[in-house]
Amino acid sequence: MNQVALITGASRGIGRGIALELAKLGFDLGINFAGNAAAAQQTATDCIAQAKAAGWSIRAETLQADVGLGSDRDNLIGSMRANFGRLHLLVNNAGITSIGRADILEAKEENFDRLMAVNLKGPYFLTQLAARWMIDQAKANPTMRPKIVTISSISSYAVSTNRGDYCMAKAALGMMTKLYAARLADYGINVYEICPGVIASDMTAPVKEKYDKLIGEGLTPIKRWGTPEDVGKAVAAIAQDALPFSTGETINVDGGFQLRRL
Ligand code: NAP
User: Fold this and answer.
1) Of 23, 7, 176, whose CA–CA distance to 95 is shortest?
2) Contact 95/121 with Cβ under 8 angstroms?
């Protein structure tokens, strides 16, 4: 039987890139999306084709849920149970950028609340639901080593004063990773944070010119935009248990952005 992964926000961008890489490994996939059903269906179709080319037969189910809503998170995990009956990998990827990208002296409380619901409360409580299920599975089958990956950002430590809520949510995901890593280690469940740098997606499309210029000027030692595939490959390494003695770990997929240089 194939292993099973749930990827939030997998209809587009980085989540889609992660789904395609996991398809190549023969994972059955829960493709979560918020509103864009057509994009989610396209990802599912492309994943099945990608898997077939690699010699696998997989299932890819599209699952609508707003990770910022508790009832939707319950339904999402319920759908995974009903569709697949098992879960080897949760990837918390869904996220939104700072609404309005307002300066922190101007930013509105309602926008803060919505961002925190989607980018922080969502992954925190979805991980709780998935972890309880994974514990039951690991107890029943000690050779199963479920894993949890959360996509944070270089914004967890790099300041953008017009995206304060986004930066704070991403910083908190680092602590969330450490907390769950400590809590779940006894069950053989490893937990990881991936920090992508500047990645080409719909989220960064509106600021393309700004980052084209910065990358050209040497923002990153590796002078190119990152791709969803770059992040997908890092998740694939974790999915294959390439880091069995590492948990609570942060993996930078950022072209070397985090390096201090003189
Ligand atoms: P994107 O292109 O805007 O795609 C966002 C994805 O998340 C879509 O699949 C969208 O679904 C889904 N989504 C949005 N709100 C959701 C919600 N409330 N519930 C469930 N799904 C939701 O973004 P991206 O660039 O791929 O970013 C993905 C993750 O990587 C985010 O957490 C982001 O913060 C992080 N990240 C991005 C970059 C970057 O440079 N792009 C860098 C570092 C970290 P629909 O298609 O249905 O709208």
Assistant:
1) 7
2) no
If one residue of 201, 207, 210, 257 were mutated to test the ligand 1 pocket, choosing by the most ligand atoms within 8 A of its CB, it would be 201
Pocket of ligand 1 (CB under 6 A): 8-15, 32-36, 39, 66-68, 93-96, 118, 151, 153, 196, 198-199, 201-204
Residue 232, H or E segment: helix 228-239
Structural domains in the chain, CATH included, are 4-253 (3.40.50.720)
Closest atom of ligand 1 to 117 CA is 18
Q: How far is CA 160 from CA 114, 120, 166, 200, in A?
A: 18, 18, 9, 18
Q: Using one digit for the tens of pLDDT, what is the confidence trace for 21-62?
A: 999 999 999 999 999 999 999 999 999 999 999 999 999 999
Q: What's phi and psi for 254, nearest 5 deg?
A: -140, 15
Q: Which long-range contacts (CB under 8 A, 24 or more apart) does 139-146 make?
A: 139/187, 142/188, 144/88, 144/188, 145/188, 145/189, 145/190, 145/241, 145/244, 146/87, 146/88, 146/89, 146/90, 146/188, 146/189
Strands, E, within 103-152: which ranges?
147-151
Would the pTM of this model clear 0.85, i.e. be above it? yes
Among protein residues, the one whose CA lies closest to atom 34 of ligand 1: 95
